[in-house]
Amino acid sequence: MSRAGVNSENKAVWPATSCFATVAAKSVAAGKAVRLVIAALLSATLAVTAGTFIGQWWLNAIVVIIGTMAVLYCTYHLPKAATAQSAAEATLEAKVHDSANPNRRGSTELFRVAFDLAAIGMALVLPNGRWHKVNRSLCEILGYSELELRARDFQEFIHPDDRKPSMAKLEHLLQGKLPKFQTETRCIHKDGRVISVLWSVSQVQMETPESAQLIFQIQNISDSKEAEEKLLHDAFHDALTGLPNRALMIDHLKFTIARAKRKPGLMFAVLFLDLDRFKLVNDSLGHMIGDQLLVGIARRLETCLRPGDTVARVGGDEFTILLEEIHEEKEAILVAERIHQELTKPFNLSGRDVFTTVSIGIAPSSIVYDEPDEILRDADTAMYRSKSLGKARHEMFDEEMHDHALNVMQIETDLRMAQERNEFFIHYQPIVALDDFRLCGFEALVRWQHPVRGLISPMDFIPVAEEGGQIVEIGKWVLREACFQIQRWQEKFPADKPLYMTVNLSARQFTQPDLIDQVSNILAETGVDPAYLKLEITESMVMDDFESAAAMLFQLRALGVRLSIDDFGTGYSSLTYLHRFPIDTLKIDRSFIACMDKENMEIVRTILMLAENLGMDAVAEGVETQDQLNLLRSLNCQNGQGYFFSKPLDVAGAEAIISETYSPRPALVAPLPALVA
Q1: Contacts of 11 (CB under 8 A, 6+ apart)
Q2: In this predicted model, what pLDDT tens digit does every residue of 285-298 receive, in sequence order?
Q3: pLDDT score of 201 more than 80
Q4: Helices marked H in 27-100
């Protein structure tokens, strides 16, 4: 074949080859198996075509080899190249699109900046738990760098105790049961400390489930949690002593009562403690020392308890103790005795030794309780019983105490209306000269005629009125009525030695800042001569605060009234101070008169000698027998009162005695004229 012929034939081959290449290229988009079939067909077609146009065998072979390689290249390499080209084209297209859409480009950049600079921790997390992207705040919260975080699973940073509940919520999110969740959990900082975080998780849906990512938002709330815990602690603990307060004690009692109901054999007890004379510590040494004493007592009480018992401060100087799982009531008594013993040791407060005692009431669970307030009430009632019996002791609650407490509460309620309803009246008990039985005066004694309960003993309502404060108004009313009455009797029965009236002042009355004005106004209102009014006070009233009491007594004396110390000998009068008070009369307590044995007789003799030496007169209370009268006469006691002479009488009865013993003042008779001359 000529060269020209070869060239012409070759020109026919290249269009065919190009066609085949085009077909092969189009097969790139097909699947792998389809591409192999197409490649085989192309190879066969190429061989036939080559044989047709090229007559030489070796040239035909070369063409077939070249064609086959081309087909294989199209089959295996071009798909990868096409994929890469497609990605490049997509990237280029995106860039072109972003260039054409500046808003989208700006939003993407803004999101990236917001993510990196967010004040709270943010992260993108893969479904396998690996950190994919974290911001600076998260690194600061956990103390790790970004590389350190991305090298570990996020579960490693969750506190072991919180890991299970946290992962359970995350599992629900991945299962589509929750769109998102937020919870408080604890994480471990790089330095080992525990931090509290607010963890918010949501899921970002991608094109395939496998490519989905989680968005974490983590906020450090350690400071707020500490503040919250402090508020919670302060709400249930006493700020001064650090002990549980009343609210926490009640919470513990609720749990204990409920548990005792489930286990009938389970016993417990509550001790109610009140410091004796704590007010004296505050008033004399100051409230700062008083606070130190309370703290010291709290620490001592803690040492007296068993593990599991609870001591709480429920008031100013009041503490309660919950003894759980005791086997008998005696165990509570042993704890009370241990407390008394522990408090015998002094407290060294700012270089000063201070002693104190406590009165304790015990309420055992043998009396079935449903509410915490009930057992606290009964323990408090028992505590007040121990105070009334002398303080520095303990008493076990019984049902009789509860009945008494109910009675006291009812009396206090009725007292508030008694004066408005004119239910009070006064009886008068004569005071008699022992040498000639001459009537000297009367003691005014208030009585209460209850519309339902009848006559109520002063022993029952006077202490209640004293504590509740009603005694101030009652005492003022008694003083006024007694002054009016003695003025009437003096006018009706004039005498050289007019009768006098004795009126008791209560402790609360004596401390009233306007007492002097009250007495002065009543004296002016009734017109009674103050020399015939004698006000009685007790030893304890003047010795509790000597300076204030002395000042009050001198002001009363300046009004012209006389003063008497009632129930003398039962208190703790200091003989050193007694002569400094402007006292006129000592009244010997009836307890010494009722049993005039050798010891009491010597006490009475001493009181009478003391009164004589101090220029005072004496009155023996509770004289009821002839023997008592004879002994008092032998001791030269001037005056007495008691049932031997007369019981307390109403106005008519008292006036009858006055009439029987009254000796009119001698009339002045004009001299005869003859005698005058």
Answers
A1: none
A2: 899 999 999 999 99
A3: yes
A4: 32-53, 57-100
> Using CA atoms, how far apart are residues 362 and 271, in angstroms rounded to an integer?
5
426/446 Cα distance (integer angstroms) = 5
Nearest Cα neighbor of 291 from 311, 275, 304, 267 is 275
| DSSP letter (8 states) at residue 457 | P
Distance CA 549, CA 578 (A): 12
Task: Report how far residue 619's alpha carbon sits from residue 641's, in angstroms, rounded to the nearest whole number.
Answer: 7
The closest of 336, 340, 326, 334 to 269, measured between CA atoms, is 326
**Both tokens assigned to 454:** 């009848």
Does pLDDT of 235 surpass 50? yes
Q: Are 588 and 573 in contact (CB under 8 A)?
A: no
CA distance 156 to 255: 38
Question: Tens digit of pLDDT for each residue in 514-565?
Answer: 999 999 999 999 999 999 999 999 887 877 677 888 899 999 999 999 999 9
Q: Are 509 and 446 in contact (CB under 8 A)?
A: no
Give the pairing type, strands 424-433 and 121-125: unpaired
Compute the half-sphere exposure of residue 52: CA atoms within 13 Å on the CB side of its CA.
10
Q: φ, ψ for residue 635 (rounded to 5)?
A: -90, 5
Cα gap 538→499, rounded to integer Å: 23
What average pLDDT does range 446-472 have in this prediction? 92
Q: Give dist(CA 563, CA 533) in Å, integer.
A: 9
At residue 420's C-alpha, the angle toward residues 415 and 422, to 5°, is: 90
Indicate whether 472 pLDDT > 90: yes
Instruction: Give tens-digit pLDDT for 29-39.
Output: 444 444 444 45
pLDDT above 60: residue 54: no
Percent of the chain past pLDDT 70, that is, above it, reads 79
DSSP of 355-389 = ---EEEEEEETTS--SSHHHHHHHHHHHHHHHHHT
Q: CA of 380: how far to CAs of 207, 300, 337, in Å?
A: 73, 21, 18
pLDDT the model gives residue 621? 94
Is the CB of residue 179 less than 8 Å from the CB of residue 202? yes
Rounded-to-integer distance, Cα 569 and Cα 458, Å: 22
Distance CA 94, CA 14 (A): 39
Return the CA Rg of the chain: 53
Tokens 């303990």 identify what position? 394
More confident site: 310 or 37: 310
If pLDDT is split at 50, 70 and 90, which confidence band does 25 have?
A: very low
Q: Note whether 74 and 43 are within 8 A (CB).
A: no
* pLDDT higher than 90, residue 211: no
State residue 675's pLDDT score. Answer: 31
Give residues with Cβ within 8 angstroms of 401, minimum separation 6: 378, 381, 382, 385
- Tell me the angle at which helices 32-53 and 57-100 cross, rounded to the nearest 10 degrees: 140
d(CA 366, CA 378): 12
